[in-house]
Amino acid sequence: MPMKGGDGDGYREIDRWERGVGWIAHPGETMQRASHALVGDDGGLWVVDPVDAPDLDALLAEFGDVAGVVVGLDRHKRDSAALARRYDVPVYVPQWMTGVAAELDAPVERFGSELADSGYESFRIRDSDLPPWQEVGLYHPEEGTLLVPEAVGTVSYFCAPGERLGVHPMLRPVPPRRALSGYDPERVLVGHGAGVSTDAGAALRDALDNARSNLPGAYGRALRELLS
């Protein structure tokens, strides 16, 4: 199984709800890179950290016209520029995120505490030089949708046995409690794996509270999978 990409066609749909949908473009890859499309209060569709896939346009058309493409993590440029050019929209990048805009072959718009008129609030999850990591979270307070591009995930290499949601392996020693503990979402969407839509607030609290104590189990699981 390749870490990224692969020969498989199509995509696997995840996280569908009334105002959005997610997909994994290469279902057989180890990284399970997840992308999402969010319907904003403005009626536009906001595509976050996308990996392109055959027939993706038909999926997005179910939810409306694309208003913009969003980069949520400095390492998640993915196919953002390609989709922005295809839909003739800008790529939206947080005002404070550096080293991303110049690498995008598409028009760029900056956003601050709210993603345009989408109704999604934005907040810094991490902004560090060591390791290099700039990540923005998106939250819709009325809908209860929280999108976390990288700090937490549901793929096996993020999670200790028994966890539904796990902190990124590099962040387990210093979990992002300050950034995320104030949220009690209805659903948590992540950048790696399918999201959590049942008791999502409890899953998020458990992930943050137990990140350190479950560290041996998480690292042991990842090592076993690496060696298998």
From TrEMBL:
It comes from the Archaea. InterPro entries: RibonucZ/Hydroxyglut_hydro. This is MBL fold metallo-hydrolase.
